[in-house]
Automatic annotation (TrEMBL):
Coiled coil: none annotated. Keywords: Repeat. Belongs to the PPR family. P subfamily. PPR repeats lie at residues 167-201, 237-271, 272-306, 307-341, 342-376, 377-411, 446-480, 481-515, 516-550, 551-585, 586-620, 621-655, 656-690, 691-725, 726-760, 761-795, 796-830. This is Pentacotripeptide-repeat region of PRORP domain-containing protein. It comes from the Eukaryota.
Amino acid sequence: MRSRFPPPLISTFLVRPRSIKGPLSSFSSISDDNPSLEHEIPISKSQSFDKPNHPQSLNLKTEKPFSQDQVLTQTHVTEVLLSHRNDPNLALTHYKWATRKMIIRDNEISDPFLALVHILICSEKHYGTAKKLISKCVTERSFPGAGELVSQFVSTAERFQFDYNSNSRVINYLLCSLVRASRLEDAVICFRKMIEKNIIPCVPYVHVLLNAMVRNNMFSEARVTFNDIVRMQIPYDCATIRVMIRGSCHEGKVEEAAEYFWDAKANGIELDAITYSTAIHAICKKPDAMSACALLNEMKEKGWIPSEGTYTNVIVACVKQKYMINALRLKDEMVDNGVPMNIVAATSLMKGYCVNGDLHSALNLLEKSVENGLCPNRITYSILIEGCFNNGDYEKGFELYNRMKNEGIKPNVYNVNSLIIRYFEAGLIKEAINLFDEAIENGIANVFTYNNLISWFCKVDKSNEAYNVFEKMMKNGVSPSIVTYNNIILGYCKSGDMDVALDVFKKMQENGLKPNVVTYSILIDGYFRKGKKEEALTVFDQILELGFLPSDYTFNILIKGLSKLGQTSEACLMLEKVKKMGFNPHCMTYNSIIDGFIKEGSLNSALAIYTSMHEFGVTPNVFTYTSLIYGFCKFKNMDLALKMRNEMKSKGLELDIVTYGVLIDGFSKNRDMGSASEIFNEIHQVGLSPNTTVYNSMISGFRNLDNIEQALVLHKKMINEGILCDLATYTTLIDGLLKSGRIICASELYLEMLGKNIEPDVIMYTVLVNGLCNKGQLEDARKILEEMGREGRVPNVVIYNSLIGGYFREGNLQEAFKLHDEMLDRGLIPDDKTYDILVMGKVKEGESTSFKST
């Protein structure tokens, strides 16, 4: 029978076995009374283990299996391995034999395995084998845990007198193997155990560990590990610094990322160009363009040419912080150094130009970039399109949008949503709706796309159209948001259709959306618009009952609503009530109350609120002063109006066109056209343009002074400046012309008005009838009355009084009484003036009846 072990190794097994302490597994020891094991056979390294002429086993008396009589222990295997620590090849061969013969299990964490790894790790030829054994070990089910395995390796090194270097190599590669096996928690334990055992981790493996932590989002653990490395003065290099910078940037902690670089620099760590670039990238994220520029200069001083990405990062940071001169200088330097400019840097510079209002330079850079072979992307076009819109060049913005599509760049939903809003702003409604339909067809329309359209329709009082879009939204499977419902409710509230608004409110709840404070605030505003104060206050009480915290928007709606309904004193009481709820009044809040008191004719109360504003530290704005100026003008106290205007200027507030309009209207109604003209001229001096309201006040003022010529001059000026002449403009001019007897000129103006599709209202008809009657043109006046009938307009009492007075003056009493009967048939109730004419005969030649023109 052949021996159960190779003959050259028999002599080593004659030593008595020792038991293995600790968790290591063991086998039964060889019998002490077996005399056949007392002979030593010399070991020859040249002998072949498998040759048939090997000496036979000394167990010759029986053919029983070796395992029954002679069982080798792990101790014996370990001793054989240790006896060949200087011959790793022979040690490995014996280990393989022992595993094959089941004396030990392959890769079992036992003394033989631990000893073998130490033996192999010291040999350059067998270093790779040692690493494979360690790598395989960490993937086995029997892996005892990182901390325990480190302890076993250290214990083995101490017991069998392996030097520090071999032990350090083993445990460092264990650390590396754990990381590669994605056992990061075990790797951290291994690292900490190494520190505990005074085994210095190798720099590359420290980098591998930290890099794996960062890659797996273990940022906190990486930070703690790195702090331990620094605290214990464990060597690390710039690659480690780069890992920590990247990790901090990924967490959004750019300040911390920069600190890693500055600390390493202060501690004398040798930093390379890549580390500088990584640090610059982090600093640019802050952004801190000036520090980034300083590091860029250091790189150049060290003879390094910054990369394209580094230049780009700094250029982008400079643009973000509005250092356009620095950004452009870096762009030129980048190109001069032979580093090509990319589309990211170019796009950033274009954005900088647009922000600075230099659209021309942005567009020039676009064309130059294309000439240099760069391809604009969606971001490039989005920035330029937005820049065009913000700088008022809508036509160019739309042109760029079409160019983007023609170049095969598919617009995203952001582009479409932005463009829809801009189309609406430019008054290009058809284009906006077409783009909306295109977005639906392309499948990119989202809830914001629909909301943009719904919001606009509600803004222009087209609630039904908004609801149609809402239904299309539901049909296309896009779920409405709370904003969608709020917009539709707002639209119906603004148009005064509270019943439909409440139906939408109910449907919102049925569809599982809960109304918010904005929803209830919109309903409160809707009720106030309808003059339903009690209903509005009931909704406010509901907000409180539901546990909602009313917003400032809600409180201001309450104050404004009460003030507009002529309940300004109640608004003041409400203000005191909501202050206790934590509301801090804004300027807008006080403005509503001041405006309410002025409209109620209580100027002193308005001034008292103005005083309390200052006491509460609220600064009045242009609207505040405009309301007070209006109040003084209303009470014909123009001196105080001008004093308030001067106070406004002294506080650095510039008058807007509304404030100028209020002053001009006040002086015009006071028949002081000299002062009105001075303020009118001041409008041009401050760079504003008079609007229709301002011109109408001036025209009305000159008309009241019977200076119709100057009124006509202003009318001509309006036309030359492209200012819209509205119905009020024509009504005032025609009234003045008729009073001055210029009937033909008045008729021409009337035809001009109709040519502009401006329809006359009852006031215009009243002016025409009254003017014609006063000038004896009863036949023409009667035609106006007939025209009103054809247009479905109901004449008022003033018109009938004018005609009755005219016929009465001519002595045509029959026609006068006939008109009286016609009044009654139309359901009109004659007033005192009517009976004064018919009964008392009180009407004078050329006397206006009861009409007072605007």
